[in-house]
Amino acid sequence: MASERLTTSRLFTTSIVEGKNDIDEKYDKAYNTVSSLTRGLTEKEAHDVLNKAIDDPKQHEEICIGLMVIILSEPLQANRAFQDLMMVCRDSFKGVCDSLIANIVGERYHKLLETARKQVVWVVRQLVRAGVSQVEGVVWCLLRQMAGGDVSPRNLWLIESIIDMLKENRQWLERFSVIIASTVYSLLRLIEDHQPQHLAALRQREVNFVVMLLRDRFQDCLLIGRDLVRLLQNVAKIPEIETFWRDLLHNPGSLAPNFQGMTQLLSTRTSRRFLVVRLTPEMEKMIVYLTADVKFGMQKRYQDWFQRQFLNTAESQSLRCDLVRFIIGCIHPSNEVLCSDVIPRWAVIGWLLSSCTSPVATANCKLALFYDWLFFSGEHDNIMNIEPGVLVMYHSLKPHPMLTTSLLDFLCRIIPHFEPSMSSSIRASVGSSLHQILEKRVVPTVEPLFDNPRMDPELRRLLRETFPEFCSATPSSSIHDEYHAHQNSSPSIARMDLMAETGLDFGGGGGGGGGSGGAVLDLNNHHPSVEEDAVFSDEEDESSTGTSAVNSSNVLSNSIRNNASSRGSSVRSRTIPSVVNAPNYSSSSSSTGNITASVTTSQHVSTTASLISSIMHSSNNNNVLSTSISKPLSSVSSNNVSYSESNNSKLSNKCATNEIIELDVRNCTNVSDSLSDNVSVNGAIVMVNGGRTSKLLPSANHSAHDNSKLNTFLDGLDPDMKQHLVKYNVEKDTDRRCSLLQKVFDQVLICELEENETDSLAGALSLLLAPDYSADNTILPPYITQESLCESLEAPVFVLFENVVSLAEDDRRRHSLLLLLVALQKLQPATGYRLLFYVKAAAKIRGDSLDQLSLQVYRDLWKASGQKDLSGFMVRDLTVCSEEDPRLLCWLLPHLYSYFPKHTTGNAELMHLVLQRLDAAQLHDLVCLVLQGSLTMFDNSSFANILEKSLSWESVEQFFLWQLARAHEIPVDCCLSVLHRLHFTSHAVSAVHAEALANILMMLRRESPSESLLKHLLQRELRPQDPTVATILQYWVQRYEDKMAKLVNDIVNNKAPASPNKRKRNQGGGKPNSHVTLDQLLSHLSHLRTECDQIKFFNLATMQQSLQVAQNQCSESQKKKYGDLFALITECSDEKSSKDDTNNASSSTGSARNKYSINKRGRKPKPRKKQESDSEEESSEEEDIKQPARKRKKNNSRFASDSD
């Protein structure tokens, strides 16, 4: 019984794996304290003792918790314990309520024992009846435990009990508006689950109670907001609720004096507190974890677990709409999460929709998804509430076209049918939602959704009627016909092989977006004439190259890097190569030396091939094909180009109506050359970059908007400076461009710029230098020589860096250029690492070694930026570098670690950044640098911190880290501090640290055993399926048998003696956990015995002595627990005795000793015990006569006798 109490909890179900936690220990201690104070006392005596004990504040809390545990675990003693609690509690039950909320009802209700579960409801009922303050929080937590979609007897009992409790305490309930509203919201939702006939009685009780609260306390129910209407709609056919529904629609004044009707209710956004009340804390915890910590692509096992746990029955399908509303209204990720590779909200919602098996539940989920769209107000509603809806459709267009189609159909039909009298306002709200989505750049365009020729014609017609302002003026089908007409009139030249070789997938090119300008995204590659297997990208194959080619250099300044990290364009799939369709060109007109084109996706391979071939074979450079963009102004509220990693390369050019996009095609042969190199026309391409990131090479020409934006910046500058920049804009020669920029910077050095002038100049430079900042324009040459580095530094962007570096540190003019660099870096984040490249490359060209003075300019840039942490500043720059050119990152690392050791050595964030982008060849280079002594990435003191943080990294990243650790000759001692926190397969599946364990084992294998190493190993928690400790112990035993036995013996003999004072001294001195407990030692030795069969090791005399001493120090329960281990002493006693006889017989001077040994051997256990008990005096005399050296041997024989 005592052993059971040590391993089980009084309140919660436990398992062998989990056992008891700190809360259980705390509750057990409090229970034992109260029991020891009141055991055997009358009620009056117990009152006196408890009143005296609560004088100490700490004792007061412990006694209150102990009484609460008695109430929950012993129903027969509950009444008396509650009376004692009412008498002794002096904090208005704050401690009790906090414990109930935090540890029992709030977090671990699902683990409560059945008795404790019933007692929780009983004690809450008593607290409510007593009017205890803060009990409303406990009631709210209980409301959350009424799980939706669960018709099990346990859940039904809880619902009935809560209804009874609230009915009995109606006056108390009316004091708390939030509890009233939460109760109504919960019960309306649960009524939907209780439709079966056998639940009719419970359903009727719920209906009566809800209708009573709605009619009597409607003003409080208005707190719910628009979701009250959604829930009422689902149960409006129930007679009592139908009557209330009619009053709500036609007689709102009868419900509340100031209630103005349905419009007032629908315009109020539902608070998070009501959305979360329909999820149990366990569900909430899992959904939050899924959307905050699980990487995109790794979510399947978590979704499967959630499905098995909560969505595995037909009744539980109704829970999906609660989950959708919770994700939309409560989970609003931070910018850090949005920029990470964590699974986005739309992916979770898409999974909930696509895996639903009930048509009714699916319809409710769709309404839950679009509910905020129907009443969206830009002033009061949040963009995060409408974002998932459009992203689900947008990202499902190709992989799950039926899902996108059904959502679009639902959205079109819900507008007139939700409430016919409000259809115009609902239509306006949905339109406002779409405008907000485009304005905030959630998606670059909605044309792929509304103008997809793969859609059913009826749905396309419905979309055009519903959202005319978001559909192109020219239907995709007519443009499709134009393509065929152009194909028929063009020469039939076979270009399919070229298209296939370049990796440009035109097979699924139809249906992207209706032939309008801007980025037309073909996410729905389902054309009967093209096999789907030919599609490379599983997210998109867009035809945005034509439009991107004509955008200004601003394409790369903000939109690529900033929009890549924005919510609307954050991606999570980085390993799928990008596939971009080439542009189509149709209809011709006359203009000087330019081609103007409308960009769309091709619907047939032959069409695209023939169009491209016609361009490539054009001999007249003045030939012009011109088409105006027909995209409406209402759908293009932003003029930036959006780059979305989430679709691997989506480009969208937002242009005004009838704006002309111009492509400069001066040399048509370049088209063929670029296509063969996986490049598109005239430098506007998306390339495959090892599956990591897609890169864009923009054209030097500017669109009309970019020229306008450039003019705005130039207007704020000095006329001479403006003139030089205008000349730069039209100049094509690189040397002349550099000369013009030098003149600009000369003027900056002559007269200091004002703050607004600095910003204007930085903005102009950001646009003009965008080609130099292109991610495809890699600045590190493939073969690094002085000549190749010189060619790289000829780019105009390095003129600014040259001017900054050339000025002395104390030159005040240098500060002006640094401020300009800071402003430019805000617009072009790649400025920082390009400055580092320039400094190092310039030193290489000069033949100088890079010194601290050369890199001081980077430190000055950091100071000028005003940021406090140089480490964070550097990591941000290197993050951009790693995304655009991982080779350059590795090239810069040695000097950064050498000249910024304080900020780089041991920096776990920087180390993770490096390892994320590392490949095998780069790892080899780094290892060589480390072995040469040119690079030190961490040392012994900092490795433990890096190792601890690396436990959550990917396996390949941890593998690279351990390779670098070997190169740095990190000793095993630096790894032992985290050994006890490393998990193996028997631990939680989500937290396995096999990589670290395997490498630490390999390091230990090279070490000979020592007391320090052995102690760290023995302090690791024993798990039956974890072979870590047993493996290395067996390895050492096989090679260092005697040494291992001696070390074990030393550890046993260093145990705290029996003296209580010495035990306290051992506990108080030294570091925590500096000693191995006896239980830890014996558990691992027992595991070694069972798993490795090392009987020979335990037969050693030293181990026999260690086991005897350990047995003498054990408690009775430990002797029983490790009985098999201690049995080895008995099995070896005869062998040991025979060895003693042999030794004694061969001794020449030990006749007396021989006699003593023979007597001892001949004495049987039972006569010896009888002799000692019969004549205690004689035995004592014998001990005095015998030599002192025999005293220890006598004690050992006594231990052996005890074990027998």
The order of strands across the largest sheet is 1-3
Radius of gyration: 39 Å
Given helix and strand content, the structural type is mainly alpha
Q: Would you tell me the overall average pLDDT?
A: 72
Poorly predicted regions? 1-6, 476-702, 986-990, 1056-1073, 1132-1204
The termini sit apart by: 25 Å
Give me the count of strands.
8
Characterize the biggest β-sheet: 2 strands, antiparallel
Please characterize this protein's 3D structure:
With 1204 residues, this protein is mainly α. Among the domains are: 1-138; 279-440; 476-701, no CATH class; 706-873; 1148-1203, no CATH class. Helices cover 60% and strands 2% of the residues. It has 64 helices and eight strands. It has a two-stranded antiparallel sheet with strand order 1-3. The chain is flat, with a radius of gyration of 39 Å. 41% of the residues are buried. The model is unreliable at 1-6, 476-702, 986-990, 1056-1073 and 1132-1204 (pLDDT under 50).
